[in-house]
Design a protein that fits this description.
two-stranded antiparallel sheet; 208 residues; 7 helices; mainly alpha; 8% strand
Length: 208
Amino acid sequence: LGQYLLSKHHEIEQRLPVIICELLDGLPQSGEVDLVPQLLSPLVGDVFSKLIDRDLSEEVMGLRLGKMFEVKHTMASLSRLDDMLERVYSFLGEDCDADEEKFICQLNCLVFGVENVLSTLAENLLSAFQASGGSTPAQLPLYPVEVMISTTHRSAVSPTEIAGHRVEPRDIIRIHLEPFGNSSEMTVNAGLFGTGRHACIGRSSVSP
């Protein structure tokens, strides 16, 4: 998946400033704006259309595919899950059979990316607007919180420095787990499941 995303990186990087300016220019200069349907959904839809090599429809975006990984399912929700997968297979079409590796990458983008990016943008924009108080330009954080990606918290046991920030004993550190999964090193991948006594049981699957 990492190599697949890298192959799309340049095209998306070039496209982002263009689509963002187009969407912002299309917003009304005064009055109320509904950021999700007027800005964020079109932005996310455009980016993921480039990632999966086909126009991402509003119907597929609205499926909320991340729900398929909920722990608890009823018979009714399992039936909806079957319908959801059938729609995705139909949407991706011939790629399902012609190129299995590409299909897996496309499915990962849809399941783990669309709703996560949309929710992350919405949550962090809201926080930025609330923090600005309406009196100063809102500014997104340099490291926005990913609202659908698991985080864990650890207490420092000794003084250290992380990216120029001083950490003292008993300081609480919030760790985003997703980046651990992007490494090619198995020992680093294990961090995706947490560390210490509270690590997820799945950690054993990537531990040397």
